[in-house]
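Reading group handout, session on sequence-to-structure problems. Before we discuss, look at one worked example. The prompt was deliberately terse, the way you'd type it at a terminal:

> structure Ribosomal protein S4

The input record follows.
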Amino acid sequence: MARYRGPRLKITRRLGDLPGLSRKVISRNYPPGEHGQKPKKPSEYAVRLKEKQKLRFNYGVSEKQLLKYVKTARRVKGSTGQVLLQILEMRLDNTVFRLGLAPTIPAARQLINHGHIHINSKRVSICSYQCKPGDTISIQNKEKSKELVQKYLSFPGLANIPSHLEIDKNTLTGKVNGFIEREWVALQLNELLVVEYYSRK
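And the output record:
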């Protein structure tokens, strides 16, 4: 399934607050559609599917990518759910967003695709690049790039920068100091349900 490019508010109404997808505030907090206001008890499958969809839409990954990340997380020692969240949080597009250099993950993806982002002084245009502790993220040395990022920094998507990241707003340089801890993940979800959803695949 390809990356979602449709209306974002429809997704946030159905799944709840997704800080990486959109900054728009929901005025109607019930799901879209004619049956949205008639609450019914969801099945166990529906509960697990909803948690999985939260991950997919918030981080902007395809079904194929998410399944690949789950398989990778299973091979790593430790809690599969937490390792999966770490893999998704350490993606370059999410790291740029969490540093405040972009208001949403789709906006961060656009910055990366257009060549505005450098890692360790080398231009990187792959959004799924896995950031590592010690990586330095900087902005292309062009006035237009810096103006755009300065504007984004004035209105960050999330108020707090996670403890594993640091940013120098004067030089527009960010640094990855380690791996993210579970309490710093901004998305509200139960990752164990996502692992259970994929347990048969």
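Points for discussion. First: The helical segments are 8-15, 44-59, 63-75, 80-89, 92-98, 105-113, 143-154, 191-197. Second: The two ends are 16 Å apart (CA to CA).
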